[in-house]
Q: What sequence folds into this?
């Protein structure tokens, strides 16, 4: 009996090795949906005792392969413009432990039998969420929340173009001047005595098409003078972990995170390895002024169009 168990164990290990060598796997980070997904595939060994054992061995190998692919994909995710998850794992035992636990706790979202005895298992990890998310494992809580900066004096804020000019669905008119003070109730944006908010904007879309924007978990928006006007330290930490700082999409019609009446501005360049959009000073001033009226930056109603 012992000899039989030993032989069976050796055969199982050989089957796993065979499957891992012949498996075809897929892993990707979907920034539109904010998930990391990995698909592992396995082929049943030819010398399996029966169809049940063959399916079990193929499934086991597919799971192992999916875990491996998922771990590699997660390591390559950029936390910010300068740092990947792998960088953080190298320098922090805490992050390494949290990320390893996250991979092991990945959710199986699909599994199926393939032709000729193969098997496929797809694992998925959310990038954001209160618990069991990549953000909760790698984004540290700041010591204090930082207020949004003042607008740059002496530079008139830009006059926004209608969002429909950028291909956004038809929206109510936003051209009527507002008599509301710039400093909105509950917003951490500073007042700008010389400017007035148009008002009514529900979010911000930054058009970065053609610039090669690199998606990151913790982006920073800067003005052309290099001053950050939006970063995770300006926001409620728990909201950042739960929902992220910004959405990424290639289709402006899918920018629902910015609401039904977004302010759309065009990035003039990118900073820090193409991870941070840079706005003209006039556009940055407009963003801060409008945020003062409706607080869309405070709620992270921001979308990057790439």
A:
């Amino acid at each position: 009996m012992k000899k039989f168990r030993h032989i069976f164990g050796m055969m199982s290990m050989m089957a796993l090795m065979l499957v891992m060598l012949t498996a075809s796997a897929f892993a990707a980070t979907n920034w539109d949906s904010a998930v990391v997904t990995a698909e592992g595939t396995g082929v049943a060994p030819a010398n399996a005792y029966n169809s049940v054992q063959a399916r079990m061995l193929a499934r086991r190998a597919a799971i192992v392969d999916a875990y491996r692919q998922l771990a590699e994909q997660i390591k390559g995710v950029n936390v910010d413009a300068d740092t990947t998850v792998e960088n953080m794992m190298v320098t922090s035992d805490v992050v390494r432990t949290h990320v390893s636990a996250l991979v092991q706790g990945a959710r199986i979202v699909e599994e199926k039998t393939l032709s000729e005895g193969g098997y496929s298992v797809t694992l998925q990890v959310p990038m954001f969420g209160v618990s069991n998310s990549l953000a909760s494992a790698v984004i540290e809580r700041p010591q204090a929340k930082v207020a949004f900066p003042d607008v740059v004096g002496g530079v008139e804020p830009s006059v926004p173009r209608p969002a429909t000019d950028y291909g956004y669905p038809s929206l109510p008119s936003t051209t009527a001047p507002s008599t509301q003070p710039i400093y909105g109730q509950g917003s951490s944006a500073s007042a700008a005595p010389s400017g007035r908010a148009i008002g009514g904007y529900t979010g911000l879309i930054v058009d970065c098409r053609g610039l090669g924007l690199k998606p990151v978990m913790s982006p920073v928006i800067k003005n052309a003078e290099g001053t950050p006007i939006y970063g995770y330290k300006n926001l409620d930490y728990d909201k950042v972990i739960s929902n992220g700082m910004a959405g990424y999409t290639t289709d402006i019609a899918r920018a629902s995170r910015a609401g039904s009446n977004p302010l759309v501005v065009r990035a003039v360049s990118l900073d820090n390895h193409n991870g941070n959009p840079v706005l003209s000073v006039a556009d940055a001033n407009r963003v801060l002024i409008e945020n003062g009226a409706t607080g869309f930056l405070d709620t992270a109603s921001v979308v990057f169009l790439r």
The chain has two domains: 2-138, 163-305. Confidence is low (pLDDT under 50) at residues 1-24, 172-193.
